[in-house]
Amino acid sequence: MLRVENAQKDFDGFKAVNGASLSVEKGEIVAVIGPNGAGKTTLFNLITGQLKPNGGTITFLGEDITSMPSHRICKKGIARSFQIANIFHRLSVFRNVQVSVLSQKNRNLNLFLSSDSFFVKETQSILKNAGLADKHQEIAGSLSHGDRRLLEIAIALGNEPRLLILDEPTAGMSPEETATTISLIKRLAETRGLTILFCEHDMDVVFGVSHRIMVMEQGRTLVQGKPDEVKNNLEVQRAYLGTE
Amino acid sequence: MRAIDFQKGRTPIFNSILLAFLILAPAVLPAFYIYIFSVIFVTAILAMSLNLVVGHGGLYQFHHGVFYGIGAYTLALILTKTDLPPWVGFIAGPVCAALAGWLIGLFCVRLSRLYFGMLQISLGSLIWAVTFRWYALTGGDDGIHGIELPGILSGITRSYYVILIVLSVCLIALYRIYKSPFGITLRAIRDNPERCAAVGINVRRHQLLAIVIATFFAGVAGVFFVVVERSVFPDLMFWVLSLEIMIMCLLGGWFTFSGPILGAAIMVSLRTFAGVYTEYWTLILGVILILLIFFLPEGVMGFIALKLKRRELLLEAKKDI
Ligand SMILES: Nc1ncnc2c1ncn2[C@@H]1O[C@H](COP(=O)(O)OP(=O)(O)OP(=O)(O)O)[C@@H](O)[C@H]1O
Ligand SMILES: [Mg+2]
Protein backbone atom coordinates (compact mmCIF):
# COMPACT_ATOMS: atom_id res chain seq x y z
CA MET A 1 0.00 0.00 0.00
CA LEU A 2 2.67 2.49 1.10
CA ARG A 3 6.26 2.14 0.00
CA VAL A 4 9.11 4.43 1.02
CA GLU A 5 12.43 3.81 -0.68
CA ASN A 6 15.70 5.32 0.43
CA ALA A 7 14.15 8.60 1.63
CA GLN A 8 16.56 11.45 2.37
CA LYS A 9 16.09 14.74 4.17
CA ASP A 10 18.78 17.31 4.96
CA PHE A 11 18.43 20.25 7.30
CA ASP A 12 21.28 22.56 6.35
CA GLY A 13 23.59 19.63 5.77
CA PHE A 14 22.37 17.64 8.77
CA LYS A 15 20.91 14.37 7.50
CA ALA A 16 17.80 13.88 9.63
CA VAL A 17 16.55 11.11 7.36
CA ASN A 18 19.28 9.31 5.51
CA GLY A 19 18.13 6.28 3.57
CA ALA A 20 14.96 5.22 5.33
CA SER A 21 12.85 2.51 3.70
CA LEU A 22 9.49 1.24 4.77
CA SER A 23 6.57 -0.71 3.46
CA VAL A 24 3.05 -0.98 4.80
CA GLU A 25 0.52 -3.45 3.46
CA LYS A 26 -3.24 -3.07 3.53
CA GLY A 27 -4.78 -3.86 6.91
CA GLU A 28 -1.48 -3.86 8.78
CA ILE A 29 -0.49 -1.99 11.91
CA VAL A 30 3.14 -0.98 11.51
CA ALA A 31 5.25 0.70 14.18
CA VAL A 32 8.38 2.80 13.71
CA ILE A 33 10.70 2.87 16.70
CA GLY A 34 14.05 4.46 17.39
CA PRO A 35 15.79 6.73 19.87
CA ASN A 36 15.01 10.44 20.17
CA GLY A 37 16.15 12.30 17.11
CA ALA A 38 16.24 9.16 14.97
CA GLY A 39 14.14 10.92 12.34
CA LYS A 40 10.73 9.29 12.86
CA THR A 41 8.75 12.50 12.82
CA THR A 42 10.76 13.79 9.89
CA LEU A 43 10.03 10.58 7.99
CA PHE A 44 6.30 11.00 8.61
CA ASN A 45 6.54 14.60 7.48
CA LEU A 46 8.07 13.41 4.22
CA ILE A 47 5.32 10.86 3.67
CA THR A 48 2.46 13.31 4.29
CA GLY A 49 4.08 16.21 2.46
CA GLN A 50 4.80 18.66 5.30
CA LEU A 51 8.41 18.43 4.14
CA LYS A 52 9.86 17.73 0.71
CA PRO A 53 12.48 14.96 0.56
CA ASN A 54 15.93 15.58 -0.94
CA GLY A 55 15.94 12.08 -2.37
CA GLY A 56 14.16 8.76 -2.53
CA THR A 57 10.66 7.86 -3.66
CA ILE A 58 7.37 7.47 -1.85
CA THR A 59 4.52 5.59 -3.50
CA PHE A 60 1.00 5.10 -2.24
CA LEU A 61 -1.41 2.66 -3.90
CA GLY A 62 0.96 2.46 -6.84
CA GLU A 63 1.08 6.21 -7.33
CA ASP A 64 4.19 8.35 -6.85
CA ILE A 65 3.37 10.90 -4.15
CA THR A 66 6.92 12.16 -3.57
CA SER A 67 6.89 15.96 -3.12
CA MET A 68 3.14 16.31 -3.57
CA PRO A 69 1.60 19.15 -1.52
CA SER A 70 0.14 17.81 1.73
CA HIS A 71 -3.48 18.65 0.96
CA ARG A 72 -3.33 16.49 -2.15
CA ILE A 73 -1.67 13.62 -0.33
CA CYS A 74 -4.48 13.77 2.20
CA LYS A 75 -7.04 13.51 -0.58
CA LYS A 76 -5.31 10.32 -1.76
CA GLY A 77 -6.29 8.75 1.54
CA ILE A 78 -3.51 9.37 4.06
CA ALA A 79 -4.44 11.21 7.25
CA ARG A 80 -2.21 11.81 10.22
CA SER A 81 -1.96 13.05 13.76
CA PHE A 82 0.95 15.09 15.06
CA GLN A 83 3.37 14.53 17.90
CA ILE A 84 2.73 17.99 19.32
CA ALA A 85 -1.04 18.56 19.40
CA ASN A 86 -1.79 20.43 16.24
CA ILE A 87 -5.42 21.48 16.62
CA PHE A 88 -7.60 24.53 15.93
CA HIS A 89 -7.30 26.30 19.27
CA ARG A 90 -10.06 28.85 18.97
CA LEU A 91 -12.68 26.52 17.52
CA SER A 92 -14.92 24.19 19.47
CA VAL A 93 -14.08 20.50 19.63
CA PHE A 94 -17.01 19.81 17.34
CA ARG A 95 -15.83 22.31 14.73
CA ASN A 96 -12.30 20.89 14.88
CA VAL A 97 -13.52 17.57 13.61
CA GLN A 98 -16.20 19.03 11.35
CA VAL A 99 -13.55 20.95 9.43
CA SER A 100 -11.83 17.77 8.39
CA VAL A 101 -15.13 16.05 7.54
CA LEU A 102 -16.10 19.05 5.41
CA SER A 103 -12.77 18.82 3.65
CA GLN A 104 -13.14 15.10 3.07
CA LYS A 105 -16.55 15.64 1.46
CA ASN A 106 -15.36 18.66 -0.54
CA ARG A 107 -17.78 21.09 1.03
CA ASN A 108 -15.25 23.65 2.32
CA LEU A 109 -16.10 26.22 -0.28
CA ASN A 110 -19.81 26.30 0.41
CA LEU A 111 -20.52 29.96 1.17
CA PHE A 112 -24.14 30.47 2.04
CA LEU A 113 -25.50 27.48 3.95
CA SER A 114 -25.11 27.19 7.70
CA SER A 115 -22.45 24.75 8.84
CA ASP A 116 -24.95 23.37 11.31
CA SER A 117 -26.60 21.51 8.43
CA PHE A 118 -23.43 19.68 7.42
CA PHE A 119 -22.33 16.26 8.65
CA VAL A 120 -23.43 16.73 12.25
CA LYS A 121 -24.09 12.99 12.65
CA GLU A 122 -20.80 11.97 11.09
CA THR A 123 -18.88 14.37 13.29
CA GLN A 124 -20.70 13.31 16.44
CA SER A 125 -20.02 9.66 15.76
CA ILE A 126 -16.29 10.29 15.36
CA LEU A 127 -16.28 12.24 18.62
CA LYS A 128 -18.10 9.42 20.32
CA ASN A 129 -15.58 6.95 18.99
CA ALA A 130 -12.75 9.05 20.37
CA GLY A 131 -14.50 9.48 23.71
CA LEU A 132 -14.95 13.22 23.30
CA ALA A 133 -18.71 13.33 22.75
CA ASP A 134 -19.51 15.10 26.01
CA LYS A 135 -16.87 17.77 25.38
CA HIS A 136 -18.01 18.75 21.89
CA GLN A 137 -18.87 22.32 22.89
CA GLU A 138 -15.61 23.10 24.61
CA ILE A 139 -12.97 25.28 23.05
CA ALA A 140 -10.20 23.03 21.79
CA GLY A 141 -7.50 25.23 23.35
CA SER A 142 -8.94 24.64 26.81
CA LEU A 143 -8.79 20.82 26.69
CA SER A 144 -6.49 18.79 28.89
CA HIS A 145 -3.36 17.34 27.36
CA GLY A 146 -4.83 13.86 27.01
CA ASP A 147 -8.01 15.13 25.39
CA ARG A 148 -6.02 17.19 22.93
CA ARG A 149 -4.18 14.08 21.87
CA LEU A 150 -7.50 12.30 21.36
CA LEU A 151 -8.86 15.25 19.41
CA GLU A 152 -5.71 15.10 17.33
CA ILE A 153 -6.66 11.55 16.30
CA ALA A 154 -10.34 12.44 15.87
CA ILE A 155 -9.43 15.18 13.39
CA ALA A 156 -7.47 12.66 11.36
CA LEU A 157 -10.42 10.24 11.43
CA GLY A 158 -12.62 12.93 9.91
CA ASN A 159 -10.74 12.31 6.69
CA GLU A 160 -11.87 8.68 6.51
CA PRO A 161 -8.30 7.71 5.68
CA ARG A 162 -7.19 4.46 4.10
CA LEU A 163 -3.88 4.85 5.86
CA LEU A 164 -3.75 6.52 9.26
CA ILE A 165 -0.39 7.80 10.49
CA LEU A 166 -0.02 8.52 14.21
CA ASP A 167 3.04 10.28 15.61
CA GLU A 168 3.44 9.14 19.22
CA PRO A 169 -0.29 8.91 19.93
CA THR A 170 0.17 8.23 23.66
CA ALA A 171 3.02 10.66 24.42
CA GLY A 172 2.47 12.36 27.75
CA MET A 173 -0.71 10.43 28.52
CA SER A 174 -1.63 8.90 31.85
CA PRO A 175 -1.78 5.06 31.98
CA GLU A 176 -5.60 5.13 31.74
CA GLU A 177 -5.54 7.51 28.80
CA THR A 178 -2.93 5.35 27.14
CA ALA A 179 -5.12 2.30 27.57
CA THR A 180 -8.10 4.13 26.05
CA THR A 181 -6.04 5.25 23.11
CA ILE A 182 -4.67 1.77 22.46
CA SER A 183 -8.10 0.25 22.53
CA LEU A 184 -9.28 2.96 20.13
CA ILE A 185 -6.46 2.12 17.73
CA LYS A 186 -7.17 -1.59 17.94
CA ARG A 187 -10.88 -1.06 17.45
CA LEU A 188 -10.29 1.12 14.39
CA ALA A 189 -8.04 -1.48 12.86
CA GLU A 190 -10.48 -4.29 13.50
CA THR A 191 -13.85 -2.73 12.76
CA ARG A 192 -12.84 -0.54 9.84
CA GLY A 193 -9.93 -2.51 8.49
CA LEU A 194 -7.90 0.67 8.81
CA THR A 195 -4.21 0.48 7.98
CA ILE A 196 -2.13 2.22 10.62
CA LEU A 197 1.45 3.43 10.70
CA PHE A 198 2.62 4.89 13.99
CA CYS A 199 5.68 5.65 16.03
CA GLU A 200 5.94 5.27 19.76
CA HIS A 201 8.45 5.11 22.60
CA ASP A 202 6.35 2.88 24.86
CA MET A 203 7.58 -0.64 24.04
CA ASP A 204 4.54 -2.33 25.61
CA VAL A 205 2.31 -0.43 23.25
CA VAL A 206 4.53 -1.18 20.27
CA PHE A 207 4.80 -4.90 20.89
CA GLY A 208 1.18 -5.10 21.99
CA VAL A 209 -0.50 -3.84 18.84
CA SER A 210 1.80 -3.92 15.84
CA HIS A 211 2.05 -6.57 13.15
CA ARG A 212 5.38 -5.33 11.96
CA ILE A 213 8.04 -2.99 13.29
CA MET A 214 10.59 -0.78 11.59
CA VAL A 215 13.61 0.35 13.57
CA MET A 216 15.32 3.64 12.77
CA GLU A 217 18.61 5.03 13.93
CA GLN A 218 20.27 8.24 12.79
CA GLY A 219 17.90 8.55 9.87
CA ARG A 220 18.50 5.03 8.55
CA THR A 221 16.32 1.96 8.58
CA LEU A 222 18.08 -0.68 10.65
CA VAL A 223 15.56 -3.43 10.18
CA GLN A 224 11.93 -4.04 9.41
CA GLY A 225 10.21 -7.23 10.47
CA LYS A 226 7.80 -9.11 12.73
CA PRO A 227 7.89 -8.18 16.43
CA ASP A 228 9.74 -11.40 17.42
CA GLU A 229 12.35 -10.96 14.73
CA VAL A 230 12.95 -7.42 15.80
CA LYS A 231 13.15 -8.35 19.43
CA ASN A 232 15.82 -10.87 18.68
CA ASN A 233 17.80 -8.57 16.51
CA LEU A 234 21.01 -7.71 18.28
CA GLU A 235 21.58 -4.60 16.29
CA VAL A 236 18.33 -3.31 17.64
CA GLN A 237 19.25 -4.08 21.18
CA ARG A 238 22.35 -2.03 20.75
CA ALA A 239 20.58 0.84 19.11
CA TYR A 240 17.50 1.06 21.16
CA LEU A 241 16.52 -1.38 23.85
CA GLY A 242 20.03 -1.45 25.27
CA THR A 243 20.18 2.29 25.71
CA GLU A 244 17.04 2.43 27.76
CA MET B 1 -20.17 36.40 19.35
CA ARG B 2 -23.32 35.62 17.50
CA ALA B 3 -25.12 35.09 20.75
CA ILE B 4 -24.49 38.67 21.74
CA ASP B 5 -25.28 40.02 18.32
CA PHE B 6 -28.24 38.16 17.09
CA GLN B 7 -29.90 35.54 19.14
CA LYS B 8 -29.90 34.97 22.84
CA GLY B 9 -31.26 37.14 25.59
CA ARG B 10 -31.84 40.83 25.11
CA THR B 11 -30.01 41.07 21.85
CA PRO B 12 -32.99 40.83 19.46
CA ILE B 13 -34.78 43.50 21.48
CA PHE B 14 -31.72 45.71 21.39
CA ASN B 15 -31.35 45.19 17.66
CA SER B 16 -35.01 45.97 16.99
CA ILE B 17 -34.83 49.19 18.97
CA LEU B 18 -31.66 50.19 17.18
CA LEU B 19 -33.20 49.48 13.80
CA ALA B 20 -36.38 51.40 14.66
CA PHE B 21 -34.25 54.33 15.78
CA LEU B 22 -32.20 54.27 12.58
CA ILE B 23 -35.37 54.19 10.45
CA LEU B 24 -36.89 57.13 12.29
CA ALA B 25 -33.66 59.11 12.61
CA PRO B 26 -34.06 61.32 9.50
CA ALA B 27 -37.38 62.56 10.87
CA VAL B 28 -35.92 63.72 14.16
CA LEU B 29 -32.22 64.40 13.74
CA PRO B 30 -30.52 67.30 11.91
CA ALA B 31 -29.15 66.54 8.46
CA PHE B 32 -25.57 66.63 9.74
CA TYR B 33 -26.15 63.58 11.92
CA ILE B 34 -27.86 61.74 9.09
CA TYR B 35 -24.75 62.41 7.03
CA ILE B 36 -22.50 61.10 9.84
CA PHE B 37 -24.65 57.98 10.16
CA SER B 38 -24.31 57.38 6.43
CA VAL B 39 -20.55 57.67 6.74
CA ILE B 40 -20.61 55.21 9.65
CA PHE B 41 -22.67 52.70 7.64
CA VAL B 42 -20.27 52.83 4.71
CA THR B 43 -17.26 52.57 6.99
CA ALA B 44 -18.87 49.67 8.84
CA ILE B 45 -19.14 47.70 5.59
CA LEU B 46 -15.49 48.47 4.95
CA ALA B 47 -14.36 47.38 8.42
CA MET B 48 -16.45 44.21 8.28
CA SER B 49 -14.92 43.32 4.93
CA LEU B 50 -11.41 43.73 6.33
CA ASN B 51 -12.22 41.71 9.40
CA LEU B 52 -13.23 38.75 7.24
CA VAL B 53 -9.62 38.35 6.15
CA VAL B 54 -7.81 39.74 9.20
CA GLY B 55 -9.91 38.63 12.16
CA HIS B 56 -11.32 35.43 10.72
CA GLY B 57 -8.71 34.67 8.09
CA GLY B 58 -5.58 35.66 10.03
CA LEU B 59 -4.12 37.32 6.93
CA TYR B 60 -1.99 40.44 7.08
CA GLN B 61 -4.19 42.48 4.79
CA PHE B 62 -2.29 45.71 5.51
CA HIS B 63 -3.55 47.84 2.64
CA HIS B 64 -7.25 47.22 2.44
CA GLY B 65 -8.04 50.88 1.73
CA VAL B 66 -6.77 50.47 -1.82
CA PHE B 67 -9.72 48.27 -2.73
CA TYR B 68 -12.13 50.74 -1.18
CA GLY B 69 -10.51 53.40 -3.36
CA ILE B 70 -10.72 51.24 -6.47
CA GLY B 71 -14.45 50.73 -5.92
CA ALA B 72 -14.97 54.46 -5.42
CA TYR B 73 -12.84 55.56 -8.38
CA THR B 74 -14.44 53.02 -10.70
CA LEU B 75 -17.89 54.41 -10.01
CA ALA B 76 -16.69 58.02 -10.14
CA LEU B 77 -14.97 57.52 -13.49
CA ILE B 78 -17.93 55.71 -15.03
CA LEU B 79 -20.30 58.46 -13.87
CA THR B 80 -18.14 61.35 -15.01
CA LYS B 81 -16.21 60.08 -18.03
CA THR B 82 -18.58 57.68 -19.78
CA ASP B 83 -22.16 57.60 -21.02
CA LEU B 84 -22.81 54.21 -19.44
CA PRO B 85 -25.91 53.95 -17.24
CA PRO B 86 -25.09 54.55 -13.56
CA TRP B 87 -26.00 51.01 -12.43
CA VAL B 88 -23.07 49.72 -14.48
CA GLY B 89 -20.79 51.75 -12.23
CA PHE B 90 -22.39 50.38 -9.09
CA ILE B 91 -21.67 46.85 -10.26
CA ALA B 92 -18.30 47.57 -11.82
CA GLY B 93 -16.97 49.18 -8.61
CA PRO B 94 -17.11 46.08 -6.41
CA VAL B 95 -16.19 43.82 -9.33
CA CYS B 96 -13.05 45.84 -10.14
CA ALA B 97 -12.09 45.91 -6.46
CA ALA B 98 -12.47 42.13 -6.31
CA LEU B 99 -10.44 41.70 -9.50
CA ALA B 100 -7.65 43.81 -8.05
CA GLY B 101 -7.92 41.84 -4.83
CA TRP B 102 -7.60 38.61 -6.76
CA LEU B 103 -4.60 39.84 -8.74
CA ILE B 104 -2.70 41.16 -5.73
CA GLY B 105 -3.81 38.21 -3.61
CA LEU B 106 -2.47 35.79 -6.19
CA PHE B 107 1.05 36.96 -5.37
CA CYS B 108 0.49 37.60 -1.67
CA VAL B 109 -0.89 34.19 -0.64
CA ARG B 110 2.30 32.58 -1.87
CA LEU B 111 4.28 34.40 0.81
CA SER B 112 4.60 33.91 4.52
CA ARG B 113 2.56 36.20 6.75
CA LEU B 114 4.78 39.21 7.17
CA TYR B 115 5.91 39.25 3.55
CA PHE B 116 2.28 39.00 2.55
CA GLY B 117 1.70 42.28 4.39
CA MET B 118 4.81 43.96 3.00
CA LEU B 119 4.03 43.03 -0.59
CA GLN B 120 0.51 44.26 -0.20
CA ILE B 121 1.69 47.60 1.12
CA SER B 122 4.08 48.01 -1.81
CA LEU B 123 1.60 47.01 -4.51
CA GLY B 124 -1.12 49.10 -2.87
CA SER B 125 1.15 52.13 -2.65
CA LEU B 126 1.92 51.69 -6.33
CA ILE B 127 -1.78 51.95 -7.13
CA TRP B 128 -2.02 54.99 -4.87
CA ALA B 129 0.93 56.64 -6.64
CA VAL B 130 -0.55 56.05 -10.08
CA THR B 131 -3.87 57.51 -8.95
CA PHE B 132 -2.09 60.46 -7.41
CA ARG B 133 -0.11 61.28 -10.56
CA TRP B 134 -2.44 60.45 -13.41
CA TYR B 135 -4.12 63.85 -13.67
CA ALA B 136 -5.76 63.22 -17.03
CA LEU B 137 -7.76 60.26 -15.78
CA THR B 138 -8.11 60.56 -12.01
CA GLY B 139 -7.75 64.26 -11.41
CA GLY B 140 -4.53 63.56 -9.53
CA ASP B 141 -4.28 64.84 -5.99
CA ASP B 142 -7.38 67.00 -6.50
CA GLY B 143 -9.57 63.99 -7.11
CA ILE B 144 -13.00 64.30 -8.72
CA HIS B 145 -15.70 66.41 -7.12
CA GLY B 146 -19.37 67.22 -7.55
CA ILE B 147 -20.26 63.85 -9.02
CA GLU B 148 -23.85 63.68 -10.35
CA LEU B 149 -25.86 60.78 -8.96
CA PRO B 150 -29.04 59.14 -10.26
CA GLY B 151 -32.32 60.50 -8.86
CA ILE B 152 -32.98 57.79 -6.33
CA LEU B 153 -29.77 58.70 -4.51
CA SER B 154 -30.16 62.46 -4.66
CA GLY B 155 -30.83 64.02 -1.31
CA ILE B 156 -29.29 63.06 1.96
CA THR B 157 -32.33 61.25 3.36
CA ARG B 158 -32.87 59.05 0.35
CA SER B 159 -29.25 58.04 0.13
CA TYR B 160 -29.31 57.39 3.89
CA TYR B 161 -32.08 54.84 3.48
CA VAL B 162 -30.47 53.20 0.48
CA ILE B 163 -27.20 52.85 2.37
CA LEU B 164 -29.01 51.48 5.42
CA ILE B 165 -30.53 48.79 3.22
CA VAL B 166 -27.17 48.04 1.59
CA LEU B 167 -25.56 47.73 5.03
CA SER B 168 -28.26 45.30 6.14
CA VAL B 169 -27.85 43.17 3.04
CA CYS B 170 -24.05 43.15 3.45
CA LEU B 171 -24.36 42.17 7.11
CA ILE B 172 -26.68 39.29 6.33
CA ALA B 173 -24.41 38.09 3.52
CA LEU B 174 -21.28 38.35 5.67
CA TYR B 175 -23.00 36.64 8.57
CA ARG B 176 -23.98 33.73 6.37
CA ILE B 177 -20.45 33.49 5.06
CA TYR B 178 -19.18 33.61 8.64
CA LYS B 179 -21.39 30.66 9.62
CA SER B 180 -20.87 28.68 6.43
CA PRO B 181 -18.45 25.79 5.91
CA PHE B 182 -16.27 28.31 4.10
CA GLY B 183 -16.21 30.60 7.14
CA ILE B 184 -15.47 27.81 9.59
CA THR B 185 -12.69 26.52 7.41
CA LEU B 186 -11.29 30.04 7.13
CA ARG B 187 -11.08 30.33 10.92
CA ALA B 188 -9.49 26.90 11.08
CA ILE B 189 -6.84 28.12 8.63
CA ARG B 190 -6.28 31.17 10.82
CA ASP B 191 -5.69 28.93 13.82
CA ASN B 192 -3.49 26.41 12.08
CA PRO B 193 -2.76 26.49 8.35
CA GLU B 194 -0.41 23.52 8.49
CA ARG B 195 -3.03 21.28 10.01
CA CYS B 196 -5.61 22.49 7.51
CA ALA B 197 -3.36 21.38 4.66
CA ALA B 198 -2.94 18.04 6.41
CA VAL B 199 -6.71 17.49 6.44
CA GLY B 200 -6.86 18.12 2.71
CA ILE B 201 -7.69 21.82 2.48
CA ASN B 202 -6.12 23.84 -0.28
CA VAL B 203 -5.09 26.67 2.00
CA ARG B 204 -3.96 29.18 -0.61
CA ARG B 205 -7.06 28.78 -2.72
CA HIS B 206 -9.20 29.28 0.35
CA GLN B 207 -7.32 32.39 1.41
CA LEU B 208 -7.47 33.79 -2.09
CA LEU B 209 -11.24 33.34 -2.21
CA ALA B 210 -11.51 35.09 1.17
CA ILE B 211 -9.51 38.01 -0.20
CA VAL B 212 -11.72 38.22 -3.29
CA ILE B 213 -14.86 38.29 -1.13
CA ALA B 214 -13.39 40.86 1.26
CA THR B 215 -12.21 43.15 -1.52
CA PHE B 216 -15.59 42.85 -3.22
CA PHE B 217 -17.28 44.18 -0.08
CA ALA B 218 -14.61 46.87 0.22
CA GLY B 219 -15.63 47.87 -3.31
CA VAL B 220 -19.27 48.01 -2.23
CA ALA B 221 -18.24 50.36 0.57
CA GLY B 222 -16.24 52.36 -1.98
CA VAL B 223 -19.15 53.00 -4.34
CA PHE B 224 -21.35 54.10 -1.47
CA PHE B 225 -18.62 56.40 -0.25
CA VAL B 226 -19.15 58.22 -3.56
CA VAL B 227 -22.88 58.32 -2.85
CA VAL B 228 -22.26 59.99 0.51
CA GLU B 229 -19.45 62.35 -0.43
CA ARG B 230 -20.01 62.86 -4.18
CA SER B 231 -16.28 62.99 -4.61
CA VAL B 232 -13.19 60.82 -4.67
CA PHE B 233 -9.58 61.65 -3.83
CA PRO B 234 -6.31 59.69 -3.51
CA ASP B 235 -6.41 59.72 0.30
CA LEU B 236 -8.90 56.85 -0.01
CA MET B 237 -5.96 54.69 -1.02
CA PHE B 238 -3.38 56.16 1.33
CA TRP B 239 -1.88 53.88 3.96
CA VAL B 240 -3.24 55.98 6.84
CA LEU B 241 -6.76 54.99 5.93
CA SER B 242 -5.77 51.32 5.81
CA LEU B 243 -4.34 51.69 9.29
CA GLU B 244 -7.59 53.28 10.45
CA ILE B 245 -9.65 50.34 9.20
CA MET B 246 -7.27 47.99 10.93
CA ILE B 247 -7.72 49.90 14.19
CA MET B 248 -11.51 49.72 13.79
CA CYS B 249 -11.34 45.93 13.70
CA LEU B 250 -8.95 45.79 16.64
CA LEU B 251 -11.03 48.33 18.58
CA GLY B 252 -14.27 46.45 18.03
CA GLY B 253 -12.75 43.00 18.51
CA TRP B 254 -10.98 40.90 15.90
CA PHE B 255 -12.59 37.67 16.83
CA THR B 256 -16.16 38.87 17.04
CA PHE B 257 -18.60 39.12 14.17
CA SER B 258 -20.04 42.57 14.73
CA GLY B 259 -17.18 44.23 16.61
CA PRO B 260 -15.92 46.09 13.52
CA ILE B 261 -19.26 47.93 13.22
CA LEU B 262 -18.75 49.34 16.68
CA GLY B 263 -15.12 50.09 15.85
CA ALA B 264 -16.22 51.97 12.72
CA ALA B 265 -18.79 53.99 14.67
CA ILE B 266 -16.25 55.01 17.30
CA MET B 267 -13.54 55.89 14.81
CA VAL B 268 -15.81 57.92 12.51
CA SER B 269 -17.15 59.86 15.49
CA LEU B 270 -13.63 60.50 16.74
CA ARG B 271 -12.44 61.65 13.34
CA THR B 272 -15.43 63.95 13.00
CA PHE B 273 -15.31 65.57 16.41
CA ALA B 274 -11.65 65.38 17.36
CA GLY B 275 -10.12 65.28 13.91
CA VAL B 276 -10.64 68.99 13.42
CA TYR B 277 -6.99 69.25 14.27
CA THR B 278 -6.16 67.18 11.24
CA GLU B 279 -2.42 67.42 11.55
CA TYR B 280 -2.60 65.44 14.78
CA TRP B 281 -4.85 62.71 13.40
CA THR B 282 -2.09 60.16 12.86
CA LEU B 283 -0.82 60.95 16.36
CA ILE B 284 -4.27 60.23 17.79
CA LEU B 285 -4.35 57.00 15.80
CA GLY B 286 -1.00 55.97 17.23
CA VAL B 287 -2.10 56.61 20.78
CA ILE B 288 -5.36 54.70 20.31
CA LEU B 289 -3.43 51.80 18.86
CA ILE B 290 -1.02 51.66 21.80
CA LEU B 291 -3.83 51.88 24.35
CA LEU B 292 -5.73 49.10 22.60
CA ILE B 293 -2.79 46.77 22.39
CA PHE B 294 -2.06 47.15 26.09
CA PHE B 295 -5.51 47.45 27.61
CA LEU B 296 -8.08 45.99 25.24
CA PRO B 297 -6.41 43.31 23.16
CA GLU B 298 -9.74 41.58 22.55
CA GLY B 299 -11.46 44.81 21.54
CA VAL B 300 -14.53 46.46 23.02
CA MET B 301 -16.88 43.63 22.02
CA GLY B 302 -14.53 40.99 23.35
CA PHE B 303 -14.19 43.04 26.56
CA ILE B 304 -17.95 43.34 26.99
CA ALA B 305 -18.36 39.61 26.45
CA LEU B 306 -15.82 38.95 29.17
CA LYS B 307 -17.28 41.50 31.58
CA LEU B 308 -20.83 40.30 31.23
CA LYS B 309 -19.68 37.04 32.69
CA ARG B 310 -22.93 35.46 31.76
CA ARG B 311 -21.42 32.09 31.50
CA GLU B 312 -23.65 30.28 29.08
CA LEU B 313 -23.80 33.33 26.91
CA LEU B 314 -20.05 33.48 26.84
CA LEU B 315 -19.80 29.80 26.10
CA GLU B 316 -22.34 30.14 23.33
CA ALA B 317 -20.45 33.10 22.02
CA LYS B 318 -17.15 31.33 22.22
CA LYS B 319 -18.46 28.25 20.58
CA ASP B 320 -18.25 29.70 17.13
CA ILE B 321 -15.26 31.93 17.45
N1 LIG C 1 12.87 21.61 10.98
C1 LIG C 1 14.05 21.13 11.40
N2 LIG C 1 15.18 21.85 11.23
C2 LIG C 1 16.37 21.38 11.63
N3 LIG C 1 16.55 20.20 12.22
C3 LIG C 1 15.47 19.43 12.43
C4 LIG C 1 14.17 19.85 12.03
N4 LIG C 1 13.29 18.88 12.36
C5 LIG C 1 14.00 17.91 12.93
N5 LIG C 1 15.31 18.23 12.98
C6 LIG C 1 16.38 17.38 13.51
O1 LIG C 1 16.31 16.14 12.84
C7 LIG C 1 16.53 15.08 13.75
C8 LIG C 1 15.39 14.11 13.69
O2 LIG C 1 14.25 14.71 14.27
P1 LIG C 1 12.86 13.98 14.41
O3 LIG C 1 11.92 14.97 15.02
O4 LIG C 1 12.45 13.41 13.10
O5 LIG C 1 13.19 12.82 15.43
P2 LIG C 1 12.20 11.81 16.12
O6 LIG C 1 12.70 10.46 15.78
O7 LIG C 1 10.81 12.11 15.79
O8 LIG C 1 12.50 12.11 17.64
P3 LIG C 1 11.51 12.07 18.88
O9 LIG C 1 11.45 10.65 19.31
O10 LIG C 1 12.20 12.92 19.91
O11 LIG C 1 10.20 12.63 18.45
C9 LIG C 1 16.71 15.70 15.12
O12 LIG C 1 18.10 15.74 15.40
C10 LIG C 1 16.17 17.08 14.99
O13 LIG C 1 16.89 17.98 15.78
MG1 LIG D 1 9.16 12.73 16.78
Q: Which structural class do the helices and strands of chain A define? A: alpha/beta
Percentage of residues in strands of chain A = 15-25%
Oligomer: heterodimer
| C-alpha end-to-end distance of chain B | 7 Å
Question: In the residues of chain A, how many domains can be counted?
Answer: 2
Q: Helical element count of chain B?
A: 16
Instruction: Report the uncertain regions of chain B.
Output: 1-8, 309-317
CATH fold-level name of the largest domain in chain A? Rossmann fold
Q: Which architecture name of the largest domain in chain A does CATH use? A: 3-Layer(aba) Sandwich
Task: Return the average pLDDT of chain B rounded to an integer.
Answer: 85
Q: What can be said about the biggest beta sheet of chain B?
A: none
CATH fold type of chain B: ABC transporter involved in vitamin B12 uptake, BtuC
Q: List the total number of helices of chain A.
A: 9
- What is the global morphology of chain B? globular
Helix/strand-derived category of chain B reads mainly alpha
CATH class group of chain B: Mainly Alpha
Q: Tally of extended strands of chain B?
A: 0
- Bound molecule kinds, no repeats: adenosine-5'-triphosphate, magnesium ion
Strand content of chain B: under 5%
Q: CATH superfamily membership of the largest domain in chain A, which one?
A: P-loop containing nucleotide triphosphate hydrolases
Largest sheet properties of chain A: 6 strands, mixed
